[in-house]
Protein backbone atom coordinates (compact mmCIF):
# COMPACT_ATOMS: atom_id res chain seq x y z
CA UNK A 1 0.00 0.00 0.00
CA UNK A 2 1.33 3.44 -0.85
CA UNK A 3 -0.07 5.24 2.17
CA UNK A 4 -3.09 6.52 0.26
CA UNK A 5 -6.47 5.66 1.67
CA UNK A 6 -8.62 3.84 -0.82
CA UNK A 7 -12.36 4.26 -0.67
CA UNK A 8 -14.02 0.87 -0.82
CA UNK A 9 -17.56 0.05 -1.81
CA UNK A 10 -19.47 -0.91 1.33
CA UNK A 11 -20.15 -4.63 1.76
CA UNK A 12 -23.45 -3.84 3.47
CA UNK A 13 -25.73 -0.86 3.98
CA UNK A 14 -27.62 0.33 7.03
CA UNK A 15 -31.34 0.84 6.41
CA UNK A 16 -30.99 4.62 5.80
CA UNK A 17 -27.97 4.06 3.53
CA UNK A 18 -29.78 1.31 1.60
CA UNK A 19 -32.75 3.64 1.09
CA UNK A 20 -30.43 6.35 -0.24
CA UNK A 21 -28.52 3.93 -2.49
CA UNK A 22 -31.70 2.39 -3.91
CA UNK A 23 -33.63 5.63 -4.17
CA UNK A 24 -36.59 4.39 -2.11
CA UNK A 25 -38.09 5.33 1.23
CA UNK A 26 -37.98 3.34 4.45
CA UNK A 27 -41.62 2.31 4.15
CA UNK A 28 -41.01 0.75 0.73
CA UNK A 29 -37.78 -0.89 1.92
CA UNK A 30 -39.56 -2.51 4.86
CA UNK A 31 -42.41 -3.64 2.54
CA UNK A 32 -39.86 -5.38 0.32
CA UNK A 33 -38.22 -7.00 3.36
CA UNK A 34 -41.60 -8.09 4.77
CA UNK A 35 -42.62 -9.59 1.42
CA UNK A 36 -39.38 -11.58 1.29
CA UNK A 37 -38.16 -9.87 -1.86
CA UNK A 38 -35.21 -8.25 -0.06
CA UNK A 39 -33.26 -10.17 2.56
CA UNK A 40 -31.34 -8.64 5.42
CA UNK A 41 -28.65 -9.54 7.95
CA UNK A 42 -28.96 -8.77 11.63
CA UNK A 43 -25.96 -7.76 13.73
CA UNK A 44 -27.25 -7.29 17.23
CA UNK A 45 -30.15 -4.88 16.85
CA UNK A 46 -28.76 -3.46 13.62
CA UNK A 47 -30.29 -4.38 10.27
CA UNK A 48 -27.93 -4.53 7.31
CA UNK A 49 -28.59 -5.09 3.62
CA UNK A 50 -25.70 -6.67 1.76
CA UNK A 51 -24.62 -4.71 -1.31
CA UNK A 52 -24.97 -7.83 -3.47
CA UNK A 53 -28.54 -8.31 -2.20
CA UNK A 54 -29.43 -4.69 -2.97
CA UNK A 55 -28.08 -5.13 -6.51
CA UNK A 56 -29.95 -8.44 -6.94
CA UNK A 57 -33.21 -6.84 -5.78
CA UNK A 58 -32.73 -3.91 -8.13
CA UNK A 59 -32.03 -6.22 -11.08
CA UNK A 60 -35.19 -8.20 -10.29
CA UNK A 61 -37.23 -5.05 -10.84
CA UNK A 62 -36.01 -4.82 -14.43
CA UNK A 63 -37.11 -8.39 -15.09
CA UNK A 64 -40.52 -7.70 -13.57
CA UNK A 65 -40.91 -4.48 -15.59
CA UNK A 66 -40.03 -6.23 -18.86
CA UNK A 67 -42.45 -9.08 -18.09
CA UNK A 68 -45.26 -6.63 -17.36
CA UNK A 69 -44.84 -4.98 -20.78
CA UNK A 70 -45.24 -8.20 -22.76
UniProtKB/TrEMBL annotation:
InterPro entries per UniProt: HTH_17
Highest taxon listed in the record's lineage: Bacteria
Domain Helix-turn-helix: 13-60
Protein name: Helix-turn-helix domain-containing protein
Protein source organism: Sphingomonas alba
Amino acid sequence: MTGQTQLLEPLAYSVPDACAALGIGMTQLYKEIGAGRLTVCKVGKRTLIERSEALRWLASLRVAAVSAVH
